[in-house]
């Protein structure tokens, strides 16, 4: 089997040959690599080729592939049974671990997270957070930012309408205009746009939802004070702030991005690292907020596989293993690789800037660092495809889109990092030679 034949077979029975569109190679061209295994910093495809993996399952694999502590915990859980549809003590331990990690993040002297509900995907976590915010405030509208991704629930697949502070339009076929119109899509890092939206719709806005640091349009860091401004503005207007840490949570630090920049969040969503590679996500808030959820409160939420014992075992083992040394290594590897990317592109004369937020980074093929989605889209993205393929040819697997963050893990040892550094000069020359399609 080759990647091409695997892709052909998949495309016959799976739309586009992929079960999530980010896996498709549509923006870089070619057949996606079909993988059969992973170990440490490496993945292996159906042709037996090994790649240094800088996707890391889009974030969950903070410890790398097949970490022994995580596999042992999963094997032990599997041996006890796959699912009970009933509570298990490990769910409490995971909730306690999340609360303990977030304990330094306080507002008015109280931790922002006192209770946690486990769900299976980040999409469910943000969807539930919004329902909870609407239930608590009795309001309908939600502010989100252009280029931020919060999963694929209807109301969050919305694009800005024309003009500032106008209700949003569907960003996908199948999303009713009436549902998209419950969302306001604003430019990121633009406090004036937020102020204008509250001036127009203040008493109808239930919540602002924001990625703790934007990393789904490539990486775009929040401007200093922007997250705090969102909390203050929401609270001044009787609305809530939902901080989406699905991607950044437990990756940027032990307490996620909030560990680097504490903010008075009302609800925080988690995913990716919290499941260590298994389907697991969560939302957390203060007790009185979380007790508005069923079965105690009027806001309904449920899940047959929520808190699945195998997923919880993987998540707990990941969080227990992710100590200060792990975060130091991840930061170090990210700094080494991103600096080398910067130097290689400079040496090849490619117009670029490296956009960083903590240990997450991506390339912008332009000289001015963009602070919002419109700015990110001005880059010469056509340079990414040739760069990507030159890296792939050299055995390095990058995200197959210029608009995604690069992910490293604590398993990226010096040998794996060296392989990345050695591949960069040729890839940078390929980016330099690229021409617009
Ligand atoms: C990945 C992601 C989601 C959605 O999580 P899924 O598990 O893919 O549903 C939500 N928010 C952010 C910030 C994400 O990066």
Structure description:
There is one protein chain. The chain is α/β, with parallel strands linked by helices. Among the domains are: 1-36, no CATH class; 71-321, Type I PLP-dependent aspartate aminotransferase-like (Major domain) (Aspartate Aminotransferase, domain 2, 3-Layer(aba) Sandwich), CATH 3.40.640. The protein is built from 14 helices and 17 strands. The chain has a 7-stranded mixed β-sheet with strand order 6-14-13-12-11-7-10, with helices on both faces. A 4-stranded mixed β-sheet has the order 1-2-3-17. A hairpin with a 2-residue loop joins strand 1 and strand 2 (42-45). Helix 2 packs antiparallel against helix 10, helix 6 (191-201) runs parallel beside helix 7 and helix 13 (384-393) crosses helix 14. The longest helix has 24 residues, at 324-347.
Topology overview:
Layout: H1 3-13, E1 35-39, E2 42-45, E3 50-53, H2 68-80, H3 89-102, E4 106-107, E5 110-111, E6 115-119, H4 122-137, E7 141-145, E8 158-159, E9 169-170, H5 177-180, E10 183-186, H6 191-201, E11 205-211, H7 226-236, E12 240-245, H8 257-260, E13 267-270, E14 281-285, H9 287-290, H10 309-321, H11 324-347, E15 353-357, E16 360-364, H12 373-376, H13 384-393, E17 396-397, H14 414-433
Parallel strand pairs: 3-17, 7-10, 7-11, 11-12, 12-13
Antiparallel strand pairs: 1-2, 2-3, 4-5, 6-14, 8-9, 13-14, 15-16
Helix pairs in contact: 2-10, 3-10, 6-7, 11-14, 13-14
Bound molecules: pyridoxal-5'-phosphate (PLP).
């Amino acid at each position: 089997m080759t990647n091409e034949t695997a892709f052909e077979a998949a495309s016959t029975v799976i739309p586009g040959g992929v079960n999530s569109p980010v896996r498709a190679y549509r923006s870089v061209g070619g057949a996606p690599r079909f993988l059969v295994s992973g170990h440490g910093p490496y993945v292996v495809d159906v042709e037996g080729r090994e790649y240094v993996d800088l996707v890391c399952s889009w974030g969950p694999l903070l410890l790398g592939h097949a970490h022994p502590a995580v596999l042992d915990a999963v094997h032990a859980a599997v041996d006890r049974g796959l699912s009970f549809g009933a509570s298990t003590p490990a769910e409490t331990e995971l909730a306690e671990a999340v609360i303990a990690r977030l304990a330094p993040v306080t507002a008015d002297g109280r931790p922002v997270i006192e209770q946690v509900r486990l769900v299976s995907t980040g999409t469910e976590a943000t969807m539930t957070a919004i329902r909870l915010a609407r239930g608590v405030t009795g309001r309908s509208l939600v502010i989100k930012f252009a280029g931020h991704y919060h999963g694929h629930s209807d109301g969050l697949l919305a694009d800005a309408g024309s003009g500032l502070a106008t209700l949003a339009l569907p960003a996908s076929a199948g999303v009713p205009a009436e549902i998209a119109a419950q969302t306001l899509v604003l430019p990121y890092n633009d406090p004036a746009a937020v102020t204008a939206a509250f001036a127009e719709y203040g008493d109808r806005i239930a919540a602002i939802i924001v990625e703790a640091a934007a990393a789904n349009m490539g990486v775009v860091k929040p401007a200093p004070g922007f997250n705090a401004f969102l909390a203050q503005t929401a609270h001044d207007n009787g609305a809530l702030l939902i901080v989406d840490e699905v991607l950044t949570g437990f990756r940027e630090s032990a307490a996620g991005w909030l560990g680097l920049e504490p903010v008075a969040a009302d609800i925080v969503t988690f995913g990716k690292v919290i499941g260590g590679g298994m389907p697991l996500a969560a939302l957390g808030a203060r007790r009185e907020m979380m007790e508005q959820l069923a079965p105690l409160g009027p806001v309904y939420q449920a899940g047959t596989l929520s808190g699945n014992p195998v997923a919880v075992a993987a998540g707990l083992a990941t969080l227990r293993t992710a100590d200060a040394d792990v975060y130091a290594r991840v930061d170090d590897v990210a700094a080494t690789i991103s600096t080398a990317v910067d130097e290689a592109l400079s040496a090849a004369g490619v117009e670029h800037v490296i956009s960083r937020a903590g240990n997450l980074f991506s390339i912008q093929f332009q000289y001015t660092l963009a602070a919002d989605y419109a700015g990110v889209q001005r880059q010469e993205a056509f340079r990414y495809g040739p760069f990507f393929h030159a890296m792939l040819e050299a055995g390095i697997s990058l995200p197959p889109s210029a608009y995604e963050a690069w992910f490293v893990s604590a398993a990226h040892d010096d040998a794996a990092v060296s392989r990345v550094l050695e591949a960069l000069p040729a890839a940078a020359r390929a980016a330099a030679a690229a021409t617009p399609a």
